Amino acid sequence: MAARAPYYFEAFEGRRPPEPLPYSLTRELLYQFLATISLVLGAWYIWWRWTASLNMDALWFALPLVIAETGAYLGLVLFTINLWRDDAFATRPPPASIQDCVADPDMPDRPISVDVFFTTYNEDVELVRLGIQDAKRLTYPHPIDVRIHVLDDGRRPEMQAAAEEEGVNYITRSDNVGFKAGNLRNAMQVTSGDFIVICDADTRPFSTLLEDTLGHFRDPDMAFVQTPQWFYDLPEGRRLPEALGRRLGGFGRALGRGVERLIGNVQVGQDPFVNDPQMFYDVIQRRRNWANAAFCCGAASIQRREAIMEAALRVYADTVTKAATASAKEARKLTREASVDPGVEALMLWQTALDQELTPYKFHVSEDIYTSIVLHSDRERRWKSVLHPRVQSKMLSPQDLLTWTIQRFKYAGGSLDILFHDNPLTRRGLSLPQKIMYATTFYSYLGALWNVVFLTAPVIYLFSGIAPVDAFSFDFFKHILPFLIMTEIAAMVGTWGIPGYKSKASYLAFFPVNLRALWTVLRREKIKFPVTPKDRQEGNFFTIVLPQFTILALNLGALVFAAVLLALGSDRYTLGGLIANGFWAMNNVFAMSGIVAAAFWRPADESPAEPAAVGAPA
């Protein structure tokens, strides 16, 4: 094997993932108490906004803002329900044989068999090899049959050669129908393991993956176990004195030390794209376990083959029956007969069955969450899922803004497509808690609609002096401040110490991506399946963040404009209006500055010595 150039992430091989957040009943009860107060205060504020605060002389401004506030409040309600409770995590010993994982007492006693799938298309062959080598180190305390497969949709001879060198199976196909979902379906047709481990091309499983997770499958109704995704290559950044010193010399180092004396340690360039998924997995997903609503996220999941195939067969049968019924109805209409000959109807059913395809994984850009919905809504089996809180693999994060945008657009577009075209809220078989949890996910992508209003509202006021409320008076602050303060306190308790500001700022900064995804879905355009690049893309990414930069510039410009008018003695503003909108505009500036700076971010060893536009996150 020819020597290869070292990967950038090899410097981070020694990093270890964080431990799961410890469960605390006391903290959970405190969060429930504080969150209840927050929602009551929020309802009081929203009621006051609709009934007593609208500026009737500027309804063109007042109504969009109050509608946006109401939309955001509903999102807060859903998020609060999501975080409401957690279950103390209990491990179960790894099953000794397949009999420990099924309800059938007649199942032959034999070792469990596991298929490990590495899906790949055009990723670096040596990158995939690293994951294969890690998978070969999987440990288990009992006899087990582990088979590793490379699912190559790129049909590359070099990938096949690497698989043969590593002694693992190589699977390919003649086309790319269904993309990743089709690739997985093809592999399921030629493999037979009891359980399937899904790995992306950059997934590096830990040796403990099977012994730590298969215990969940002692419950014969457990369909899949999702483990947290952990990006071990996230930039850790530099201390502020060091970062400023590289650009401003001794003065910069002194300035950085002075700032840190005031506000504590500051890291510059840390996780510039807000890729750290701990908030999502260790807080949001984990607290869906009690509702049996943790959904599959593709990579780093372990799935029961029986569950995937059984649910697929049920969907296939329902689809065939509906299509045949529609054909029979059309035939009756054409022949003007009350019924169709039974032989003809049977032929229709047979032809319809031939025309339909069995798809264990739906051909969809978000096949993972789609599969979860199908399994959770299976009314006969009531399949279960769980988010296992301990990290069992490591992956690579987007290292540039283009890759980040591609990935976020896929997430948003896929989720919105499901919402509008196969809404789980109207799907039979899902419980009410499950529907609420799925609603929380899909509703969050609609937030771009009201976030645009929040990002532009202070600009309108500071440039025009026109207020969306009848007055920024004591009455206004009396209603809004208790709600905002209690919401922040509840969130700090509810996220169990994971900092939340960067996530909230990033959510605001998502608005162009989510709006584009929403527009694409509403126009019924197909969400494409671009492979997320696994290496850093080069180029000028500033054009990607032009919408965010425009918002930043408008808010900053509005602040300067208002300050100039005040200096000239203008009386178009009230003190309350300046305070509220000044802080609001500054929040927008900080929220947008992170993603704008990320367009210029480069890894530390690539940063030039001379001053340059290298960003830090908000």
Number of domains: 4
Low-confidence stretches are 348-355, 606-618
Distance between the termini: 44 Å
Adjacency order of strands in the biggest sheet: 3-2-1-4-9-6-10
- Helix fraction by DSSP (H/I, runs of at least 4): 40-55%
> Looking at the chains present, what oligomeric state does this protein adopt?
single chain
* N-to-C series of helices and strands: HHEHEHEHEEHEEHEHEHHHEEHHHHHHHH
DSSP helix count? 19
Overall 3D geometry? globular
Supply the helix-strand structural class.
alpha/beta
Entry keywords:
Spore Coat Polysaccharide Biosynthesis Protein SpsA, Chain A; 8% strand; alpha/beta; 51% helix; two-stranded antiparallel ribbon; disordered C terminus; 618 residues
SSE blueprint:
Blueprint: H1 25-52, H2 59-83, E1 112-120, H3 125-135, E2 144-152, H4 157-166, E3 169-171, H5 179-189, E4 195-199, E5 204-205, H6 209-213, E6 222-226, E7 238-239, H7 240-263, E8 267-268, H8 278-285, E9 301-304, H9 305-335, H10 342-355, H11 367-376, E10 384-387, E11 393-394, H12 401-421, H13 432-445, H14 447-464, H15 474-494, H16 501-509, H17 511-522, H18 546-567, H19 575-598
Parallel strand pairs: 1-2, 1-4, 2-3, 6-10
Antiparallel strand pairs: 4-9, 5-11, 6-9, 7-8
